[in-house]
Amino acid sequence: MEFRPLRMFVEVVRQGGFSQAAREVNATQSTISKAVKQLEDEIGVPLLDRIGHRSVLTTAGEIVYRRGVRLLADRDDLLAELDDLRGLGRGVLRLGLPPIGSSTLFAPLFATYRQRYPGVEVQLTEHGSDRLEESLRAGEIDFAGALLPTSEDFEVQLVRREPLVALLPPGHPLARRRRIALAELRETPFIMFESGFALHRVILDACRRAELEPKVVAVSSQIDFMVKLVAAGMGTTFLPRMIALQRAGKAVRCVPLSEPGTDWVMAMVWRRGAYLSAAAQAWLDLVRGYDWGEPAELP
Questions:
Q1: Contact at 8 Å (CB) between 35 and 5?
Q2: Distance CA 73, CA 138 (A)
Q3: Which residue intervals define the domain HTH lysR-type in the entry (predicted)?
Q4: How many CA atoms lie within 13 A of 88 on its CB side?
Q5: Cα-Cα-Cα-Cα dihedral of 97, 102, 105, 109, to 10°?
Q6: CATH (residue range 83-157+264-287)
Q7: Beta 190-193 vs 216-220: how paired, if at all?
Q8: Nearest Cα to 198, choosing from 238, 153, 158, 171?
Q9: Burial class of residue 87, CB neighbours in 10 A (0-12, 13-18, 19+)
Q10: CATH dotted code for 1-71
């Protein structure tokens, strides 16, 4: 079995369609279709049911997808282990970092790593935490910055814990409060991160616990845009305190949430039992020994 058709099939399933997979791997849709057909011919059974514009996994497809993810991850581990025979003069470190907090937390660490190991190629991927966990599970990256709690499939190194704050326009009735509960924002529209962001899940889970159905007026992945929407009076959004202090000027107020279970807990995670290359182990050692500092306080 060739790995290329298998990788393309896995990508079709992960991305939810042929056109989405083609964009992700920078190939044409016909190339993806041919690769999946090649894999089906080799195995001898259909892997996908084509229903209109949708493709649904067959029973055989579910087996091939589940084991294919592991095979591809094991292949990447094999190549990384062979690379280690050449030492840290070269190698590849594959990092997945979320947009929220990465510039503050990981940019200085990344610079230190590059200074110590200039021969290592660092491949950076940026997505929301939930999407990065999928890539990590598939063996496409060595480490991911992820919000806790996370899957038991992963080993965890804690990086930073920050409370979440609600960003409100200065004229909002709750803008001068020292703390607020989510239930008090029942009449305030929510500006949410996209569903691939773990923070999206954190807020929705907290709303369910508070028996609150949020009125979502906008969904975005751009922090600055979301802050400007708050400043324009469109509603409220939520950020870790350290990010809010950097992005929020006089046009918005930051009020900590009193809701339990809403802390933003960033960690570096990797596949449990996975082989860590010398380049990856050097990154992990740096993360473990780094001084992540103390959380800042709101003025």
A1: yes
A2: 6
A3: 1-58
A4: 15
A5: 60
A6: 3.40.190.10
A7: parallel
A8: 238
A9: exposed
A10: 1.10.10.10
